[in-house]
Amino acid sequence: MNTTTVTTATSNSMSTFTKLSIVIFVLLALLPFQNFVYDLFMMKVFCFAIFAAALNLLLGYAGLLSFGHAAFFGSASYVTAHAMKEWGVTPEIGLFIGVICSTALGYVFGYLAIRRQGIYFAMITLALAQIIYFLATQVPFTNGEDGIQGVPRGEFLGLIDLSPSSHMYWFSLGVFALAFLLVMRVVRSPFGQVLKSIRENEPRAISLGYDVDRYKLMAFTISAGLAGLGGGLKALVLQLASLTDVAWQMSGEAVLMTILGGIGTLWGPIAGAAVIINLQNYLANLGGWSTIATGAIFVVCVLAFRRGIVGEIAHRLKIQL
Amino acid sequence: MFELLGVSPQAFTAQMLIGLINGSFYALLSLGLAVIFGLLNVINFTHGALYMLGAMLTWIGLTQLGYWIGMPELEVPYLVALFLAPLIVGAFSIVVEKTMLKRLYHLDHLYGLLLTFGIALVLEGLFRHWFGVLGNSYPVPDMLRGGLRVNGLFLPYYRLWVVGVALLVCFATWYFIERTKLGSLLRAGTENPRLLQALGVNVPLIITLTYGAGCALAAFAGVLAAPIYQVTAVMGSELIIVVFAVVVIGGMGSIAGSILTGLGLGIVEGLTKVFYPEASSVSIFVIMIIVLLLKPAGLFGKVR
């Protein structure tokens, strides 16, 4: 979808991107020491930023639009919540189990979905995700409409209690940083380059001898696992897993965050997540207004603002973000 | 035979009728999607919202409009709504196509899907804001009240009417596209729009009208649905995913294919409800997985 060529930094000196990323992470790490921004709000942003980054990995770098990523986000959210509450595992084990589940699910869904392309791919992922939604309403452990409430945050490595928001903040920032590094690593690896070549010109990638379907499936699986990481973290942060996490509107939100932030940029999904979460916070009590605003932003982005926030900045400053 | 299966013939036939009704809605909606997809290459995500809009306009016309304009005794009757709602929705869609969708044709087809998704959210949000999410019921029109009694079975007239009208409209659409001169122009437009334009045919006009007509079909289904289902702001978003699954199974290769798949899957869903009720809501998705494994392009689809 995005046709700007991406050059990776080859010089020895640090690229603008690296410098900027370090600055942003340092700022994020200092955030708990001030009174302006609410901890819980930022943690929520991290969860959805991971989710959006997972989608961006697929959409921005492999050119695959999945409309069913809520299935991975939500299933990991449920599984992590269940593991924490019923089995009393530590948070990192809880997240791990959640991610394993979403990765496995991603492999199965990916296997089915990559058989078709473009719009069909989007529709198939959407329909497959709906099965998970139905399961979540039927299976006993998800508690139907109520969801899994009062999920304990546990103790990190059995040592650090995550119940206080300040501790949880550092933990979620750490998870977010890991996810960010993973996405960066994938995007800049030879694997990522092949994905880009598939996005730009699939027949050519095939003629070069790449097993395109295998690459797509791998990208899909990684993306699903990462979406699950966001979902599992969300269950810990908000101490809740509910039907909203698996509903298809959630998939749409992740797509919106990605587009709004900037498809194919590493910081884009994070910016997009921050804006959308902020917006929903403001409009939470106003009935249908949050849906209306979400839809309107979607329309504006698609019509006039396809580069997104970070994409636009990167384009103006002629740097890679 | 029914005794052997442990199902009463009454329950069986009743579920078949429900299946057939659901199938009629699937057919009408996937038909509209197929018509639009054929010419614009856009998956019209607003389709569910327009179906809701059709039902909402019908309900508003009967119960709200009179009070709004200060004439409480004014009621827009069902039959008028059956024509008026699709017209309004069609006109609205034409405006959407002219002002927004048109700008995206030169881009990846995914942008069309995303734009229509955004519009669907706005529409749904507006109606949720105005009318909440509680269901409103719409009375069955007087002339279609009552029903047939056959062998201890009650077949409501309205439901028979819905199946009949839906089949008629589906057949008419199929006939128009596959058997008339104008329909052949439309099909030519999907094959080679530039050539057709060079021959002096106003292709953009055809595209606009097709989009309007496809959307009007969704609204028509909405009017038919109003007396059967609860009229709510979210009725479309629940249905559209199932219709997408129907479309994936059918493959959107042909007009007839989408009609047959829609009806067939409605009946399959109804039958699942008889024999294994728990699975009825997922039966279509299970079928989708099986079809994808065996025939990725769908039952009537062409491999592209």
**C-alpha-based Rg of chain B, rounded:** 20 Å
Order of helices and strands of chain B: HHHHHHEEHHHHHHH
Mean pLDDT of chain B: 88
SS-based structural class of chain A? mainly alpha
Give a quick summary of the entry.
The complex is a heterodimer of chains A (321) and B (304). Chain A is mainly α and 321 residues long.
Plain-language structure description:
The complex is a heterodimer of chains A (321) and B (304). Chain A is an all-alpha fold and 321 residues long. Chain A has 14 helices and 4 strands. Chain A has helices at residues 16-30, 39-62, 70-87, 91-113, 118-138, 165-188, 190-200, 202-207, 212-238, 243-246, 248-261, 268-283, 289-304, 308-317; strands at 148-149, 155-156, 160-161, 240-241. In chain A, the strands form 2 sheets. In chain A, strands 1-4 form a two-stranded antiparallel ribbon. In chain A, strands 2-3 form a two-stranded antiparallel sheet. The longest helix of chain A has 27 residues, at 212-238. The two termini of chain A are 17 Å apart. Chain B is mainly alpha-helical and 304 residues long. Chain B is built from 13 helices and 2 strands. A two-stranded antiparallel ribbon of chain B has the order 1-2. In chain B, helix 11 packs parallel to helix 13 (280-294). The longest helix of chain B has 32 residues, at 9-40. Chain B is globular. The termini of chain B are far apart. The mean pLDDT of chain B is 88. At the A-B interface, helix 5, helix 11 and helix 13 of A face helix 6, helix 11 and helix 13 of B.
List the helices and strands and how they pair.
The complex is a heterodimer of chains A (321) and B (304).
Chain A: H1 16-30, H2 39-62, H3 70-87, H4 91-113, H5 118-138, E1 148-149, E2 155-156, E3 160-161, H6 165-188, H7 190-200, H8 202-207, H9 212-238, E4 240-241, H10 243-246, H11 248-261, H12 268-283, H13 289-304, H14 308-317
Antiparallel strand pairs in A: 1-4, 2-3
Helix pairs in contact in A: 2-6, 2-9, 2-11, 2-12, 3-4, 3-5, 3-9, 4-5, 4-9, 6-7, 6-9, 7-9, 11-12, 11-13, 11-14, 12-13
Chain B: H1 2-5, H2 9-40, H3 47-63, H4 65-68, H5 78-99, H6 109-131, E1 147-150, E2 153-156, H7 157-179, H8 181-191, H9 193-198, H10 203-225, H11 235-250, H12 255-275, H13 280-294
Antiparallel strand pairs in B: 1-2
